[in-house]
C-alpha cells in the first residue's frame, strides 16, 4: 500500500540519520579511549582505525533499539504535528496502518539485532582482542628507545639505556620491581652491553662491567656484586588467542555451553533481551508518539525515553547480578521483558473501540 510504504520510508530515513549521529557520539568516546592507550604505548597507532571499525558491531547492540525508538517517536510525532495522521484517519485509515508500517521496521531491526548480537558482535570482540594482544606483543619486542625508561616482562622490570648503536648498548640501568619466587628485588648498572633476540621472541640482554645491588629496604641484608658479564632473559608476554570470556562466544556456542555457570546463563539471556527489547520498546513507542498540542513534541517524547532508560538500567543491573550468581537471569530479566511487553500491549489497545466500550461500562457502573 502506498501509505504503508510512505510511513516505512520516513521511519527508515529518520532511523538511518539517528544511527549515524549515535555512531559519531560513540565513535568519539571510543576514539578517546583508544588514543589514550596509544599514548601510554599500550597499543600501536596503526591499529586505531581497525579497532574503531571492529567496535561498530559492539556499539550497535545498544544503539539499534535506541535508534528505532527515537525514529518512531520523531517520525510519527512530526506526522501528528503536521496533521498528516489526522488526514489518514479522516480518510478511513485507522491506527492499524501505523502498526503495519512500524512492525515492518521493528521486524527488520530485530533481524539485524539478532544477527549482530548472535554472530557479528562476538566475532568482532574476539578479533579485536586477538589484534590488540598481538600488537602488545609486537610492542614488547620492538627495539629499545634510548634515553627512556621502559617496562618489560609485564611491568616487573624497568630498563634504561643511554645510547644504542646497532645491538650495542651504553650506560645501562635495569631493576626488578617486585619479588619473583626466591629472588629479591635488585638493581643492575653496567657500562655497556648488547642485546640479542631468540627465535621464540625472547630477548637476551648481556651486560658488561657493572654492579648488582640486591635486597630490600626493610632488611639490612644487602648484597653487592661486581661483574664483568651479566646475562638476563626477558620472555615476551604470552598471548591467549582462545575465547576468554562469554562476550566473544557466538550464540550457538553460548547456547550449547554449560548453562550451570552464572556468567554463561546471564550472557545468553542478555543477548535474547537485546533482540526482544527492539520489539517491546518499538511497541511502546507507537502509542507514545502521539503529540499533545499543549505539551509539544519534546515533552510528549519524555515518557517513552524514560521507559527506555529504566528498561536498560534495570536489565544491566540484572545482568551484572546474574553473572555474580545473585539472581537467576531467566526469571529477573524476563520478568522485566514481559512487564514491558504488557505495557506495550495495554498502550496500543487502550484507545480501541472494545476497550473504550469496556471503560464506559465501568464508568457508568461507578456513576450509578
UniProtKB/TrEMBL annotation:
<dbReference type="InterPro" id="IPR005495">
    <property type="entry name" value="LptG/LptF_permease"/>
</dbReference>
<feature type="transmembrane region" description="Helical">
    <location>
        <begin position="52"/>
        <end position="76"/>
    </location>
</feature>
<keyword id="KW-0997">Cell inner membrane</keyword>
<keyword id="KW-0472">Membrane</keyword>
<feature type="transmembrane region" description="Helical">
    <location>
        <begin position="298"/>
        <end position="318"/>
    </location>
</feature>
<dbReference type="GO" id="GO:0015920">
    <property type="term" value="P:lipopolysaccharide transport"/>
</dbReference>
<dbReference type="GO" id="GO:0055085">
    <property type="term" value="P:transmembrane transport"/>
</dbReference>
<comment type="function">
    <text>Part of the ABC transporter complex LptBFG involved in the translocation of lipopolysaccharide (LPS) from the inner membrane to the outer membrane.</text>
</comment>
<keyword id="KW-1133">Transmembrane helix</keyword>
<feature type="transmembrane region" description="Helical">
    <location>
        <begin position="97"/>
        <end position="120"/>
    </location>
</feature>
<keyword id="KW-0812">Transmembrane</keyword>
<protein>
    <recommendedName>
        <fullName>Lipopolysaccharide export system permease protein LptF</fullName>
    </recommendedName>
</protein>
<feature type="transmembrane region" description="Helical">
    <location>
        <begin position="330"/>
        <end position="350"/>
    </location>
</feature>
<feature type="transmembrane region" description="Helical">
    <location>
        <begin position="268"/>
        <end position="286"/>
    </location>
</feature>
<feature type="transmembrane region" description="Helical">
    <location>
        <begin position="12"/>
        <end position="32"/>
    </location>
</feature>
<keyword id="KW-1003">Cell membrane</keyword>
<dbReference type="InterPro" id="IPR030922">
    <property type="entry name" value="LptF"/>
</dbReference>
<comment type="similarity">
    <text>Belongs to the LptF/LptG family.</text>
</comment>
<dbReference type="GO" id="GO:0043190">
    <property type="term" value="C:ATP-binding cassette (ABC) transporter complex"/>
</dbReference>
<keyword id="KW-0813">Transport</keyword>
<dbReference type="Pfam" id="PF03739">
    <property type="entry name" value="LptF_LptG"/>
</dbReference>
<comment type="subunit">
    <text>Component of the lipopolysaccharide transport and assembly complex. The LptBFG transporter is composed of two ATP-binding proteins (LptB) and two transmembrane proteins (LptF and LptG).</text>
</comment>
Amino acid at each position: 500500500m502506498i501509505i504503508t510504504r510512505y510511513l516505512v520510508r520516513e521511519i527508515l530515513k529518520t532511523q538511518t540519520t539517528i544511527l549515524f549521529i549515535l555512531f559519531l557520539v560513540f565513535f568519539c568516546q571510543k576514539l578517546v579511549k583508544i588514543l589514550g592507550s596509544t599514548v601510554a604505548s599500550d597499543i600501536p597507532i596503526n591499529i586505531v582505525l581497525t579497532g574503531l571499525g571492529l567496535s561498530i558491531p559492539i556499539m550497535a547492540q545498544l544503539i539499534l533499539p535506541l535508534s528505532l525508538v527515537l525514529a518512531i517517536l520523531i517520525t510519527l510525532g512530526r506526522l501528528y504535528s503536521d496533521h498528516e495522521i489526522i488526514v489518514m484517519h479522516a480518510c478511513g485509515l485507522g491506527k492499524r496502518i501505523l502498526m503495519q508500517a512500524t512492525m515492518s521496521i521493528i521486524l527488520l531491526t530485530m533481524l539485524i539485532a539478532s544477527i549482530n548480537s548472535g554472530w557479528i558482535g562476538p566475532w568482532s570482540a574476539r578479533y579485536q582482542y586477538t589484534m590488540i594482544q598481538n600488537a602488545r606483543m609486537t610492542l614488547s619486542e620492538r627495539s629499545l628507545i634510548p634515553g627512556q625508561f621502559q617496562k618489560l616482562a609485564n611491568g616487573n622490570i624497568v630498563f634504561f639505556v643511554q645510547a644504542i648503536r646497532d645491538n650495542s648498548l651504553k650506560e645501562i640501568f635495569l631493576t626488578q620491581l617486585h619479588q619473583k619466587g626466591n629472588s629479591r628485588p635488585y638493581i643492575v648498572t653496567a657500562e655497556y652491553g648488547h642485546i640479542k633476540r631468540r627465535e621464540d621472541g625472547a630477548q637476551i640482554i648481556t651486560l658488561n662491567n657493572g654492579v648488582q645491588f640486591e635486597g630490600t629496604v626493610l632488611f639490612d641484608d644487602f648484597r653487592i656484586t661486581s661483574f664483568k658479564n651479566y646475562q638476563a632473559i626477558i620472555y615476551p608476554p604470552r598471548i591467549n588467542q582462545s575465547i576468554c570470556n562469554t562476550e566473544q562466544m557466538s550464540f550457538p556456542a553460548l547456547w550449547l555451553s554449560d548453562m550451570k555457570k552464572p556468567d554463561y546463563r546471564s550472557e545468553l539471556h542478555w543477548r535474547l533481551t537485546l533482540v526482544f527489547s527492539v520489539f517491546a520498546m518499538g511497541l511502546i513507542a507507537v502509542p507514545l508518539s502521539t503529540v499533545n498540542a499543549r505539551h509539544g513534541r519534546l515533552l510528549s517524547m519524555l515518557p517513552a525515553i524514560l521507559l527506555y532508560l529504566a528498561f536498560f538500567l534495570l536489565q544491566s543491573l540484572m545482568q551484572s547480578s546474574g553473572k555474580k550468581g545473585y539472581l537467576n537471569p531467566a526469571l529477573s530479566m524476563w520478568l522485566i521483558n514481559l512487564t514491558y511487553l504488557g505495557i506495550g500491549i495495554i498502550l496500543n489497545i487502550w484507545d480501541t473501540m472494545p476497550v473504550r466500550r469496556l471503560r464506559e461500562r465501568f464508568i457508568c457502573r461507578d456513576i450509578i
